[in-house]
Amino acid sequence: MEERKLGSQGLTVSALGLGCMGMSDFYGVRDDDESLATIYRALELGVTLLDTADMYGPFKNEELVGRAIKGRRDKVVLATKFGIVRSADPHLRGINGRPEYVRSSCDASLARLGTDHIDLYYVHRRDPNVPIEDTVGAMADLVASGKVRYIGLSEAGAETIRRAHATHPVTAVQSEYSLWSRDVEDGILQTVRELGIGFVAYSPLGRGFLTGQIKRSEDFAADDYRRNSPRFQGENFSKNLALADRAGELAKKQGITSGQLALAWVISRGKDIIPIPGTKRRKYLDENVAAEKVRLGPEILSALEEAFPKDVAAGTRYPTDGMKMVGR
After folding, report:
1. Candidates 27, 56, 225, 284; catalytic one
2. Is 56 a catalytic site residue?
């Protein structure tokens, strides 16, 4: 697989990463054996960037990834995140960016992952009650100590990115980006490119919708996050289903799957963009990895632009409380 530079501080990763969240949380039943096999397969195929976070599970996903990379640490660019605090109520989230929490979270993640360093450590969400300079200052201390190699931000606004980068060089910003989530084109991508920061695109398959495999919201497991997502409810679901069908039509003309079309589009947006599609099954991993070789010509790119203009998706990316946590 092609390798790409992520940011301008020296980090190199595979052109396609693997999002590990769904292996342990949010998307129905866990199957740790198949998830481990999926990670092993990803490494065989040349995927080096593995993405997790302490709040996935919570904690279970880091433990799973730690098991997977045991004896394989030198093959992996390991990314994890801190800052979102889970409670007993799965619908409630807290945010903590205090320096002491940064340090304790890093130590806990290192223990769960079974490693002495994290390659890319993200602030999962900015704490509005803590200056970003304080949070990033603590992360800079982790870099100085050797516990972290590079730092990143997740779902941060342009001003936060600039302030953070002025405190310590930021290697990557991670945000949702896909054919139906193009918010970052209004300022975020311009900012990171100006500053020499790489961009990591999560949910490049629209949380599975753009694969064309989702036909009824009733098919989701009872604990599937998407049951509470505005884009997967009521009239929004029907409107978005039409978008997925259109993607399917265009993909068929290219001789590829809908998911491959969606991934190839993200890849086409620039060599500084690394999509991290998530999956917990090897068959979907193989399909996703094959998309890295797909090159879209001007005609299909123009057709996609017409079918998927900015803000085309019905409904917000997250429920109201979740939306308050992004872009700040």
Report:
1. 56
2. yes
